[in-house]
UniProtKB/TrEMBL annotation:
It comes from Aliterella atlantica CENA595. Pfam families: DUF2997. It comes from the Bacteria. InterPro entries: DUF2997. This is DUF2997 domain-containing protein. The lineage of its organism: Bacteria, Bacillati, Cyanobacteriota, Cyanophyceae, Chroococcidiopsidales.
Length: 69
């Protein structure tokens, strides 16, 4: 489940936390919001940022040869 959490402090600072998005695509999701909020002072990537999506393919290769019997 993808979630965006925002904590707005009394002094106007906003803390944003993204969970459930694997890889760097979280930056694409939050770019428009961050542009409206103002200057980003710091970013801290989580383990999900560095994780990679796994893709599995099932393929079988067969080779037949004719014998000279």
């Amino acid at each position: 489940m993808e979630t965006l959490e925002f904590i707005i402090y009394p002094d106007g600072r906003v803390q944003e936390k993204v969970t459930g998005i694997v890889g760097a695509s979280c930056a694409e999701v939050t770019a428009a919001i961050e542009a409206q909020l103002g200057t980003v002072l710091a970013q801290e990537q989580t383990a999900e940022f560095f994780a990679a999506k796994l893709y599995q393919t099932n393929a079988a290769t067969t080779q037949t040869t004719l014998s000279d019997w």
